[in-house]
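Methods — Computational structure assignment.
A single polypeptide chain was analysed. Its primary sequence is given first, followed by the predicted tertiary structure written as structure tokens.
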Amino acid sequence: MKSLTILLFLLISFLTNSQDKIYGFYDIFISGSTTGTVAPNGLEQIAFTPSSNNASFSPASSSLSGEINHIGINKYDFLYSVEGIATDNFHVNSYNTKNNFSANRALSNISLNGGNGSDARVRGMAIDKNDVAWVTAFSVIDGKNYVTTFKTNSSGSATDLQSKPYILKADLTTIEVKDLAFDFFGNLYALVLDGLTGYQYIYYINAKALMGVAQGGDIVLSKLWQISEAAGKPIKYDPKYFGGSFIDFQTYNAEGIAFSSEGQLLISVDKMSFTNVTGGYKSGVANMLYVFKPDGGDIVPQAIIYTSPENKNEISYCADLASNYYPAFLPLSFGEINATIQGNKLHVSWATIQERNNVKFSIFISPDGGNFSEVGSVNTLATGGNANDLTNYSFDYNLSNAGFLALFPVWSFLFLSLALVSNKKSRWLICFCIILFGFVNCSKKNTGGENIKTYNGKLFVKITATDSKGKTIGSKVIQASR
């Protein structure tokens, strides 16, 4: 029995501390000769623990340094990488992560911008759950962000290269799309740099809208949130260190995004510092994962993976992230909610725009908009609790079951008066009114002579959704109409 208890404890500990396998491509920015500092360079395997937001890394394979570039990994654990050959000329390689990263040439001499000669430079890659690779490339000539797709498979090869790339657009004047990620539904998330201000954002497009874009068309992204190191403190990219003239400053460089198995969106952020010294400058970097959940509040946990000592010539940053986890990411979102009273029946209808791991809805009513009581529940209609399209629900309730609650305003006044009045005759009068009020309101006749109880006061309604972990999201409060 004791051995079984220990075994169960170890199993629970293992499950609660299980680690995700995330891949990061690290690059080194060098000016002059290096000082011998050992900084991450090439492909790194990041061990991320969703339960604690902790992360660490180790080289995935020493033989891959210099060969790996921007990366994506499919559900068969083949890691794909784009290798630049010349202007607008690339190879695509794949690496079997289950077989010592054995390499394969998947595509040769391809263009990622339709061959229009605009010097498109790869910025990021993501592979969706249908094994389609999406590669984003930014042109330093025309300022456009191109996206080209190809199909990956279980053998590490590639087919169906898109001949005419999409163009990514947003509501900013100048953007550079740094990386992409896909959730369970195929919604696309993009890490976007505002080229004018240096601020960095997460943008998004719904899967249905994305699939409606024809080859060569514009993928119009919508802003989700600005990336911040703390509430009200957005990070900012400052490119001064590319200018050849250095002053003391700090810059935040967000380059890659990927999902964890538990639905966190991981953002690689490098906090770089540069300090003037005699004969040059010193540089340092803290490589971090910002761990974001859209329903987790304003605080974004930061997992520090690597901090370099301040040195003179060498700095390493994470240029890309990749994972093959596809969680339902966005939290439940309520659409339109309506409530009507007809005779003695309350009818509530509502819709959800998306659901994530949802279990049920609870319906609450209140006579004053402040004190609510649950009157029923409805199970989710979403398969597995997840939905990405409009889902409609309804609920009916007989208000005669509300009893005291339905007549709360009047009853409250009468009983409060009874408590405050000390005169014996007045108290008897109030008691008489309570009895009379109850008789009149509980014994009205309709035209057919049938006894009914009709509620004529105000009624407020709200709905609460509960997910598989017991977390709730509430709707707005509405007043029922007649």
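Note: The chain has four helices and 34 strands.
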